[in-house]
Amino acid sequence: MDVNARLERLEKENRRMKKIGIVAIVFASVLFISGQAKTNKVVEANEFRLLDASGKERATLDVFRGQPELFIRSLNGESDVLLGTDTSGPFLIMGPLTGKATVTLKPDDLALEGPVGKLRIALNREAGGPNLTVEDNEGYSTVLGRSDLLPTKTAKREQTPAASLVLFDKDKRVLWAAP
Residue 141, exposed/middle/buried by CB under 10 A (0-12, 13-18, 19+)? Predict the structure, then answer.
């Protein structure tokens, strides 16, 4: 009889401990979930810097001449990506800003520059677009599409239609044009 009473008392204590454990788990879960609530806080600063584990600056977000810019740097510290906006609109530049191999992307313009030349696709009026221009480092170029040219026969400046091909020498004189 004594064993049965002890067993019953142990089972009551065990049930009480389980209830206390469940309440503690629910209470801890409520605290954790409430700590994850959205705060809607605003952080304001003039500049943000992202540093790697060694303390080297890898990215900056700041305002330059009144326009926002994001620089992303490679391990050697050069600016490899620049995302920003200026008075003409947004732009993205990939490649070292001081180097010869870059890609520049704007909503109406794509330019690639490498060690031996340039390629540009222009869809804006300022560049005479729409056109595709290929230019080597000596200055010789080919324009497929609209281009401003000064024919040698007449001193009048003309613009070619979008369905044209013009070859220029290094002094920007027309070598050949069709139509």
Answer: buried
pTM of the predicted model as reported, rounded to 2 decimal places: 0.68
The pLDDT tens digits for 129-168 are: 799 999 999 999 999 999 887 655 666 777 888 899 999 9
- H-helix or E-strand spanning residue 80: strand 79-86
Give the angle subtended at the CA of 88 by the CAs of 85 and 92, to the nearest 5°: 40
CB under 8 Å to 78, separation ≥6 — which residues? 96, 97, 98, 99
- Which residue range forms the structural domain that includes residue 52? 45-97
The tokens for 169 are 């020498």
Cis peptide before 179 (omega within 30 of 0): yes
Nearest to 163 by CA among 137, 130, 135, 139: 130
The total of structural domains in the chain comes to 2
